[in-house]
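Translate structure to sequence.
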């Protein structure tokens, strides 16, 4: 599969539109505690598009998201991740964030003593390098709070402490709305959400979509993809992207499950036919 552009960074002007501003993952191998989880992932996240990354439990979806942000637990043993003409593997997590990459965690951490609003303001400051005037920040925050249907009390509460699944996810989307990343990765944003929260969170994401942002929605289920329509669908099995296609791939997975694809590609994730 060669939807991966291999042009050097200094030739970006001649790169086809599809790769302009794309985040390109090439032959990525990564291990945790000496165990190889990602075994040659190729994936391109293009701005202006919604990508879905689907796959069975344990196929390496969260590992891939964590490696993208530079989580210290994961060792990259081979491959590259390029964004804006740089190999980002040499960058720290906050350098990656400042470059415009955002990850909404599958399991967000709680920070007792830090109210949501303060956290959001501090994140914005860290990203922009300067502080937004309080009045402006409040206005921006209020608009997003309305969209995500969270009330005043929510942003005064301590970050993720005692939050329901839905509140944690709304907080992540709130953060994304304020930070306006160029590449956003949402890891199982649908997990633990009831149908109303799922709809609200999806509306929040949809409202942010546009030509300047590429999104990767990591999910096990079709559910969230009924609300956020993917342009491209990737299937990860055993640490490799074994299928890339359009929407129809989601429907096929929903009807048949992952088994037929796993059988087709064999245990190693290698195409057997
Ligand atoms: P997914 O998100 O697709 O369900 P993960 O990336 O979370 O999959 O996990 C992939 C594999 O890596 C699993 O077999 C899991 O047990 C293993 N793994 C993930 N994180 C760790 C860790 N910190 N220590 C040991 N094994 C891990
Ligand atoms: Mg996961």
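Result:
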């Amino acid at each position: 599969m060669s939807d991966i552009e291999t042009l050097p960074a200094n030739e970006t002007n001649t790169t086809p539109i599809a790769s302009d501003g794309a985040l390109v993952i090439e032959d990525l191998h990564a291990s945790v505690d000496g165990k190889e989880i990602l075994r040659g992932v190729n994936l391109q996240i293009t701005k202006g598009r919604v990508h879905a990354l689907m796959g069975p439990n344990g196929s390496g979806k969260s590992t891939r998201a964590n490696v993208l942000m530079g989580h210290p637990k994961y060792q990259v043993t081979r491959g590259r991740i390029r964004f804006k003409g740089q190999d980002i593997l040499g960058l720290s997590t906050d350098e990656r964030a400042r470059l415009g990459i955002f990850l909404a965690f599958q399991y967000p951490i709680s920070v007792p003593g830090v109210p949501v609003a303060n956290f959001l303001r501090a994140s914005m400051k860290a990203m922009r390098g300067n502080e937004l005037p309080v009045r402006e920040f409040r206005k921006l925050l209020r608009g997003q709070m309305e969209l995500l249907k969270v009330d005043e009390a929510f942003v005064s509460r301590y970050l993720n402490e005692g939050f329901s699944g839905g509140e944690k996810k709304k907080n992540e989307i709130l953060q994304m709305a304020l930070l306006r990343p160029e590449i956003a990765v949402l890891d199982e944003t649908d997990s633990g959400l009831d149908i109303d929260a799922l709809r609200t969170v999806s509306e929040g994401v949809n409202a942010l979509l546009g030509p300047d942002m590429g999104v990767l929605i990591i999910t096990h289920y079709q559910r969230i993809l009924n609300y956020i329509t993917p342009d491209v669908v990737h299937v990860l099995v055993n640490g490799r992207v074994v299928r890339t296609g359009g929407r129809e791939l989601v429907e096929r997975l929903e009807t048949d499950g992952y088994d037929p694809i796993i059988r087709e590609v064999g245990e190693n994730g290698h195409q057997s036919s």
